[in-house]
## 1
Amino acid sequence: MADPALIAVDWGTTALRGALLAADGTVLAEHAAPRGLLSVPPGGWGAAFEAEFGAWLAAHPGLVCLMAGMVGSRQGWAEAAYCRCPAGLADVAAQLCWVQPGRVAIVPGLCCEADGVPDVMRGEETQVFGALQALGLQVATLVLPGTHSKWVQVQGGRISHFSTHMTGECYALLRSQSILARMLPADDGAWVPEAFDAGVARAFDAGGLLHHLFSVRSLALFGRDDGPALASRLSGLLIGEELRAQALPAGAPVAVLGSPALAGRYQRALAQRGHPVTAVQADAGWMGLLAVARAAGLLAAPGPAEADALPAGTLRP
Amino acid sequence: MADPALIAVDWGTTALRGALLAADGTVLAEHAAPRGLLSVPPGGWGAAFEAEFGAWLAAHPGLVCLMAGMVGSRQGWAEAAYCRCPAGLADVAAQLCWVQPGRVAIVPGLCCEADGVPDVMRGEETQVFGALQALGLQVATLVLPGTHSKWVQVQGGRISHFSTHMTGECYALLRSQSILARMLPADDGAWVPEAFDAGVARAFDAGGLLHHLFSVRSLALFGRDDGPALASRLSGLLIGEELRAQALPAGAPVAVLGSPALAGRYQRALAQRGHPVTAVQADAGWMGLLAVARAAGLLAAPGPAEADALPAGTLRP
């Protein structure tokens, strides 16, 4: 087994995930727990960390732990000041927020600003850095679908700009709390790709999202679509609106990072609009944390046996 | 006192309102009750009607009652088939749905279709007809703000097209159920017109509604706006998006029908975008039902004393 080089942690609002990583990205061990920001009491972060990851650190003295996600928010372990865009690995590595000096650090989130309005991310930046390494790209447009989707522009290997879209949250609210919920089955039921496609296409027509949403009700009133089709249409209307708002150049390629089910919907919508799509696995975050650690000179020295097996470009101590 | 000529009823989802009207529109008596569609049991419509309006009909034998609103929906007293656009007074009058022949009728709602997607209204059509009479217009663009706002195009005195926007419902959901709710005061608190204006203006910038909504959170994170300002901004973002989606010609006049508080926000947003605005009182519905009754030849004969006082153009029996 390769020597462990880093403990990588994604600590979010409702859960945490961690991995013991070798310098080449091999996952040597993994750990997950439903212990997110919401379930850690004030002042309880150090104890929670020891309970979850103390054993790994005890077994591998000298190893560093890098954490990404909401753990660095105002309600987290410590508020890691946002790193301003444009931001690359070196920028983020220079702004690590050490909660246990030399042992545990939080990777800062990013902020950017357009027309006097700020935007923020925490955690997605490490996934983007990992994806860029995996894809070997320096220039890219990426989307990270989710409750709050992120669209990310990369120039010269750095995140130049990004924007957040409340697509997933609006879908959940409309799906379960609005008047449209009465037209829809309790669970999503059968996925109806044609209805999703119709929703995506409709989002690009004149009328606006607030109007197009109502079509879920009016189509039901006239019996033109059944519940599963309407749920798929609603998803298409929202993802289509998110896509429309990007005003992407014709044929621009897009990389999609996320869980297969949701990423698949984005890939389908992008394909309908004529955009070549690359799918990136959701564990790009581990690659990203490893890249940040390397940029910060924090990777543990490989043992003599592993040293020869390191990929080219790996920083050597 | 003028003789009563019509019993006009607006019977909606959660409440009903009725008026005893003279032929010139004078309101001789009014009645309201929290007895909407949701609180009338199946088969209980006739009894509910007698309990609310039986006394008026008994006191004025031969009077007709016209009803508008969700009382004509599938879950209402009887399903009044939608009247297709373009639709004017004569079209609606020819499609009255009699639930008690010669005594009580429901005014049908309207439907229209664009790009294969239908849209519907029930009740707003009578408000529009009333407003057209009050304004003396044959060509107009009107907006009826609400949970589901309606934008209505009128050509030659008939409603040629309309579209529904889920603006009010989305505001309520985002205001109270979304992650944005944490940034906002429990009630709307102080109205901050500058923040509302900023939201309206922002809605016209590139980025799309799903992105602009997130600014309520990001501005709060950076402490740039307080809760009341953010609530006003959210309102401006949604009303601004509704307005943007109309793609109105520059300087096009718009009539706003609704309660003063909400209509005032729409008037302010329209003024910011350079549109002359006419405000119409919310009781345009009584004028509209009177106009439908007149078009259907249903107005009770005025007594000899009142006959001379009728306005010009009133249909005489």
Note: The interface with chain A takes residues 74, 114-115, 117-120, 148, 163-167, 169-170, 173-174, 177-179, 202, 205-211, 213-215, 218-219, 221-222, 224, 238, 241-242, 244-245, 247 of chain B (CB under 8 Å).
## 2
Amino acid sequence: MVAEIRMQEESTRTKYLAERIKEANTTAIERILSVEPTLVDVDTALNVIPDMTPNTILHAGPPIDWEGMCDPMRRALRGALIFEGLADSDQKAGELLRANQIKLSPNHHHDAVGPMTGVISPSMPVIVTRDSTYGKTAYSTFNEGGGKALWFGAFGKETLQRLNWLKDVFGSVMKRVIAKTGGISIWNILAQGIQMGDECHNRHSASTNLFLKGIVEPLLSIDLSREVVMQAYKFIAGNSHFFLNITMTASKLAMDAAHHVRDSTVLTAMSRNGTEFGIRVSGLGDSWFVAPAPYLHDALYSPGYGPGEGAPDIGDSSIIETMGLGGFAIAAAPAMASFAGGGFEEAVNITKQMGLITLFENPTFRIPALDFKGTPTGVDIRRFLETGILPSINSAVVHKSSGAGQIGAGIAKAPYECFIEALKAFGKKYSLAA
Amino acid sequence: MVAEIRMQEESTRTKYLAERIKEANTTAIERILSVEPTLVDVDTALNVIPDMTPNTILHAGPPIDWEGMCDPMRRALRGALIFEGLADSDQKAGELLRANQIKLSPNHHHDAVGPMTGVISPSMPVIVTRDSTYGKTAYSTFNEGGGKALWFGAFGKETLQRLNWLKDVFGSVMKRVIAKTGGISIWNILAQGIQMGDECHNRHSASTNLFLKGIVEPLLSIDLSREVVMQAYKFIAGNSHFFLNITMTASKLAMDAAHHVRDSTVLTAMSRNGTEFGIRVSGLGDSWFVAPAPYLHDALYSPGYGPGEGAPDIGDSSIIETMGLGGFAIAAAPAMASFAGGGFEEAVNITKQMGLITLFENPTFRIPALDFKGTPTGVDIRRFLETGILPSINSAVVHKSSGAGQIGAGIAKAPYECFIEALKAFGKKYSLAA
């Protein structure tokens, strides 16, 4: 009799919670949909990023100390110290880092995001994106482009020269250009990009072209030498990933808007530091639920490289998938289908699978080849238990040890352990009977 | 016995011809595939277009006299006479035209093409596209953009001002820009455009952006005032159809390369003057096989307009479909699917149907949503008899009488009578029984 009453109470409580979760998730979705991210400014990281100090370097992924970091991340940090003048050699930089003389902190704890190693150091110019709905701001570096670049953990003379040019020339040019535009709506560009074959993570060709198209007039209307105008233009035009970091700031704002909704099971961040993969959940505060970072499967490698040479998955860029773009929208970018180890149908299947673990279709981003269905958005972590399906992330492979930078691209699956841990924590926090 | 022998002879001859046709069509296809159209120059129509005289105006479609012309075509011609200073009023222009004081001739007879009314007058600056394989050249005007424009048969102060600016400023700027680029490969841009949601007739958004991206550096590197640079840039950036006329010149070169192949049943031109729809066939010389121009079906109209107000189908732009793009490639541009009176599946169906009347899939233009199959190219006029399927053309609707210009867009079907006439002529020329 007592047991029966207890079971009834339990069942009532569970039912009550299910309703509360539903309501909370509806709120989270509404918040994602109402965010209006606008690229409004460019400034120096030290000036604008919260809790940035001359001695702080930010990195991708959940928190991690020097000892735990993978080789590409360590390289990027050493490169950043040299760039900042905090060390005058690779060796000196390594010593400072090993001796904990530098404060290391995750981008996500500073309203920031960065692709791959994601390193942001105090003097770097950063993109400033504001959400006019909730008034929050997010930051990222400018994308450096391919080849020997710090975001891939590569550095050398060429990389440092480029970083210095970004700091001394490009940043201030873009600050004036963005001011002249009055702000650039990021959803507007991405909505068109999705119509033009971008999935908005590994493919940003159309979005970058649309961005370029929008800034030429402001660029020409400010008082700059033709040489500088040309340099700035060529830098953007020469990098089809230029818009990636901008997309990341917008996705960060949308997911942060959905974060901290009591009772919500909506996934609000996925991020990797190259050692661990971490997720955050709206109703579970600022905890990270981590597991070892996975290796990419079905990756395509640059000539001369192959499986076994890549570091585990790395970067904050999976905030894009958390927002329902990238891997979730791969059916919009059949040119990326080869990463799916198949053709167009395989890409469509992935997007459809993501539809099984998400709560809504985003009407802002419509996939042409799926009869203009919206992108599957808002992962409900409970759906993993029901379906066994994990988020699919379009990613790049960076060499695990040689400093060669990017050696491939492919698809990563979020590790299931993160979801199990988050679900356990949810049960505990909301006193669910397991 | 005599009858039997005759039948055998007949059968042998038919078989022999079928083989000759097959061979001829293979040649035609090879010629289409080997054309390399490059935008190489801009010049004044009078300077470069064969048989252009100060008193000649070219128009879209097969040959037609003033009396037979539709209202939008007549308007465009009157506008052109005023632009040329050949008449000082609309009325005076009409008088000259009625009195046959102006030589009217089809673009196609002068290595030229023009969309909609397609009017080219002697002072207009024209795009010069050269095929490096066969050394031929094709010409078209610059696309004027939407609204009150001569290509839609609208003219007035604004239109004439724009035409004068194109002649006095834009033409010479672009001449220098194109020279600086060393020539722009048109297939290269269209191949990317097809990957980015363009079908390369009614949708040229991506192709225009790619063209823009390619000309900014040359534009900035020549000695021009910033104001002129800005005007030129804005003119292109403000018109997502800018690349249309360029695509038409390339398609014209490809189809002309396949023209005049003895025994070939490959369609080498489809064109409309707003009164008649005409086709040309490779093995049938320069004859046009004509039928009344069709009205568009499943068209979408601008607010305030509807069916019954449009003129019949008009323009040389269907050279794009003859080349296997536009309506034939509509599965690549699901954003155009609404013109198909349906969704994505309907667009895929149209492209698949076009596959049933064409001879090959063009490896240069691969449709992402069809697992990167090439665009269906090279209509064999015999296939119409076997399948009953007619070429599908993505087109625009222009007002039949008010001078309002474009009032809608939709799909036109080539009239079957043209194909019947061409097949009869083929039979006659090659002494086929039947």
Note: The mean pLDDT of chain B is 95.
